[in-house]
Amino acid sequence: MLLTEINTGDIPRIIEMAWEDRTPFEAIASQFGLRQADVIVLMRQQLSPASFIAWRKRTRGQHTKHQALRSQAVTRHCSHYQHKQYRP
């Protein structure tokens, strides 16, 4: 999918999913049709340079962002602590 074909209303959700530690790039691909390289281009376009660098440092080498590298124990796409009612 070309980045120009993305619904502008979907961009905030794609960015949110890309920032989430437990959401793999494969989930973004299945939901929006964007490969990891497309997500990187989108993030570069939409974020400030400092935010983009911080995001790339955060996601590079992170096992939970790649379905093939994930432990079989990770069955959820979000952390148990993501929602306020579960926070300690």
Largest sheet: none
Count of DSSP strands: 0
Distance separating the two termini: 41 Å
Structural class: mainly alpha
How would you describe the shape?
A: globular
Helicity, in percent? 40-55%
Give the amount of beta strand, in percent: under 5%
Number of domains: 1
Low-pLDDT stretches are none
Explain this structure.
The structure is a single chain. The chain has 88 residues and is an all-alpha fold. It has one domain. Helices cover 44% and strands 0% of the residues. Helix 1 packs across helix 3 (36-46). The chain starts with 10 loop residues before the first helix and ends in a 29-residue tail after the last helix. The model has no long low-confidence stretch (mean pLDDT 78).
Keywords, separated by commas or semicolons:
single chain; mainly alpha; 4 helices; 0% strand
Summarize the structure.
The protein has helices spanning 11-19, 25-32, 36-46, 49-59. With 88 residues, it is mostly helical.
What are the SSEs and their pairings?
Blueprint: H1 11-19, H2 25-32, H3 36-46, H4 49-59
Helix pairs in contact: 1-3
